[in-house]
Write a structure and sequence with these properties.
Two copies of one chain form a homodimer. Chain A is mostly helical. Chain A has helices spanning 8-34, 42-61, 64-73, 76-85, 91-97, 100-108, 112-120, 124-130, 136-145, 148-159, 165-168, 182-192, 217-222, 229-232, 246-256, 276-294, 307-334, 336-341, 344-372, 381-411, 414-444, 453-476; strands spanning 175-176, 201-205, 211-216, 260-264, 270-275. Helix content of chain A is 68%, strand content 5%. In chain A, helix 17 (307-334) packs parallel to helix 22 (453-476). The interface between A and B is large, with 142 and 142 residues.
Chain lengths: 478, 478
């Protein structure tokens, strides 16, 4: 048993070993330099080689996903040192495992021949995953080396949009006919000798490759060998189409607890299969990109990316926020006369804006989630608005009163306290209405409500909060 | 083929059908009321029954997960109407599928006998999932009805912390001995007749139930029936322990593309198995709770929860934010004298604070992610700080200059522009240092950096931003 091979601790131990070996190696090099020894003295060569050999051995023992982990956790220079030590025939599978950002740093370090060699060890659907990062000339050469069927598959896989079923599917399908017995199926499988990863079912097709049903291995092994495939197969399998959205398919995988599922075209012809590992990777990516986009990062970032790369990843959103912050600042500018007269307004106004933003984001997060799960539609929209308005009103009255009292206590001005309470309540109502409304409108316009809703709601509650508070103050206090 | 059964559109169609039937039903009732017909007139009864029968038929046809979806998408009153129509023997499996918040509303509607009947249809590990929501007396009665082995299993499953492997595992394991041939295994399986869901491998154990290896069905069907289990089985399977953290296990499932894996105790005795569907549900829950906690929601919310329930879910975080906003407000209060002299400060200060918060959140999000993946440890901390300080410095100089120019253009005060640039740069440096530091310190203290880091970084950059900007202004402009 590979006891604990998988735990985070043992992974970090492996990482530490690699780092130690790298450090030893560097130390030797530095020593040699300092003492001005002839660069290729025997001693140096020996120690040097011994370290590298040990490191290489360590890397060879690790699962590709674990090598990927180590590469991601190393700063660029050391990462490339380790990458050079990885056996060429493992390059492909490791490139598939690393994150997009790290993959780019590794590919930038390889020449065309190395890339070609790495890609040639992969399946067609895997090459398609790698393709966007490959230089154009490598891709062209690669197409030439493939046979007709695989070239067609690669081209079609690359033609599907990134988050479609077609982009996730693979071609490792084992098909059988329905008119044979299970005994014959078993003999056929023994002849094949090895089944693709994640094979939990065989696909039953007719002469024209049209899907007739699926034969789960579970059924194959428990049923009478004399029974025919037709009698034993399931004909109500969940099927997907290549142009469907991957997020719908992933929800179906979760809902129906699937391991693999057939992908068919409009004529019910089997074109590939979807596996749970691809779906799980997709779910992870999807949820990560949601968290990243909430923080205003365009994409996953290599933690050791150059400052310049990081700036590119983060500038778009900072620029947008700069604009919204500037607008809010101009709203305050409108009321400079009032602030001059009652300077306490300047100290109190960020509270109104800030709490409005928080409350609005709570609402929006819930609505975005409900939309993603398809729980929200026209029939229940009214309920939602009413509920959120209720929550906003109560929050506004409760917290607004607390702050109103605090303002009164600080500035001994009862009217100021009342304005505070009123402004909080109104801004929380605004937050409730916009918190429900913005994601709904974005969906209606065909946009992903998870991206940008948070920025927009904050912009509205900031400028709105300043305007409401300073406006009320100007009306009633000046 | 159940063509498109799984798509979001068809789910929403089912939902719409249910709503239409409910509405029809209500309309008939209202009509009867209005015309003051005798309550049990024949006509009413007939139409009434017909509608309900149609609705019931529709529900019977749906997968439990799809019924769960419909229940979640309905406001409370209609939800309970539909729930009453669901066949009693399906109650258990549907309760497992709905979200925690919705499950509570359904369970509140059931009496002890109904709950007991529902729970009795479930497997032990499924009862354990339901247990936290069951009333104490139902749970006690349930324990009495179980046989010794299952009672022990339930008690041990309930004893594991919520996010451990033990809490996720199930007991649907098929075990075999290593000294028999594949032929004998196949005969044994045919005698069993049906394998548990997700069975992709059989577990090979010795007389003391110690795990010796695993026999994937894939290998069972392709190898010579005369071969022994020992020859064919894999003895390097990834194994888990019940007390391991579920999030480590889920990373291992992703990394090694597992479908099922054995769970063993410290003596290597097989105690259960982990399946990919449980892991996938866990990943979804984990990522959702991250997004929810970023928005300051304690837990998943039933979108039709009462206003009161929603307030409970949201108050903790609003209260914390109120406190941090109040502190920031007091920081401004320190400088009221300066603001009175240069009122432009009031309009400009939220920009400095806001952009600092955004930038700090970008940094923190990246660090939290790196920590979760185990990519960050002592050896690369210095690199991280240096990089983030570099990013902060550049952002500060660039955006600070833009805003400095804007301030100069608006207020024709060059010194004010310079103060703006300086404050932006310093606050972004603060955001960088705290953005890296806060999650690292939280981890060091044994806390989850994903919860609360965002609130803390915003608090620091708000108060810090106001202090730096108003402080510099007071020093150089007043």
């Amino acid at each position: 048993m590979a006891e604990n091979e998988q735990s985070k601790e043992s992974l970090q131990q492996s990482l530490q070993q690699v780092i130690n070996l790298l450090n030893k190696h560097r130390l030797v090099e530095e020593l040699v330099h300092k003492q001005d020894m002839p660069k290729h003295s025997l001693v140096e060569l020996l120690v040097h080689k011994q370290n590298l050999a040990e490191l290489q051995k360590k890397l060879d023992e690790l699962h590709p996903a674990d090598v990927a982990y180590i590469l991601e956790a190393l700063p660029i220079e050391e990462r490339l040192q380790v990458w050079d030590l990885v056996k060429a025939e493992r390059d492909g599978e490791i490139l598939l495992e690393v994150s997009d950002a790290v993959r780019q740093t590794l590919i930038a370090d390889m020449d065309s021949d190395e890339l070609l060699a790495a890609a040639e060890q992969l399946d067609t659907d895997e090459i398609a995953d790698l393709a966007p990062d490959l230089p154009q000339d490598v891709l062209q050469e690669l197409l030439v080396t493939l046979d007709f069927q695989n070239r067609q598959r690669l081209q079609s896989a690359m033609s599907y949009p990134e988050y479609s079923v077609g982009a996730l599917m693979d071609f490792d399908i084992v098909t059988i006919r329905e008119d044979i017995t299970l005994e014959v199926v078993l003999r056929y499988l023994r002849r094949i000798g090895k089944l693709p990863d994640h094979t939990d079912k065989l696909f039953v097709v007719d002469r024209e490759s049209r899907l007739r049903g699926v034969l789960p291995l579970k059924r194959l092994v428990v049923n009478d060998p004399e029974a025919s495939v037709e009698e034993v197969m399931a004909d109500d399998a969940v099927v997907f189409h290549p142009e469907e959205e991957a997020s719908d398919a992933s929800q179906a995988f979760e809902r129906y607890d699937l391991v693999t599922a057939p992908v068919v075209d409009d004529n019910n012809k089997l074109v590939g299969r979807l596996t749970v590992d691809a779906v799980m990777d997709f779910i992870r990516e999807e949820s990560e990109s949601e968290v990243l986009s909430l923080a205003g990062l365009r994409e996953e970032e290599d933690i050791f990316a150059s400052v310049w790369k990081s700036l590119q990843n983060r500038w778009t959103w900072l620029a947008i926020n700069l604009i919204t912050a500037f607008i809010a600042s101009r709203v305050i500018g409108l009321f400079e006369g009032s602030i001059e007269k009652i300077v306490a307004l300047a100290a109190l106004m960020p509270i109104v804006a800030g709490i409005g933003g928080n409350s609005g984001n709570q609402t929006t997060t819930m609505i975005v989630r409900g939309l993603a799960l398809g729980q929200i539609s026209t029939h229940n929209m009214k309920n939602l608005f009413m509920k959120e308005i209720g929550v906003g009103l109560l929050n506004g009255l409760v917290w607004g009163s607390v702050l109103g009292l605090a303002a009164f206590a600080l500035y001994h001005n009862a009217a100021l306290g009342l304005v505070m309470t009123g402004a909080m309540t109104l801004n929380l109502l605004l937050a409730a209405v916009m918190g429900v409304g913005i994601p709904l409108v974005m969906t209606r316009l065909g946009r992903d409500p998870a991206v940008g809703s948070s920025v927009m709601i904050t912009a509205v509650t900031d400028s709105g909060g300043f305007f409401i508070f300073l406006g009320l103050a100007t009306l009633f206090l000046i």
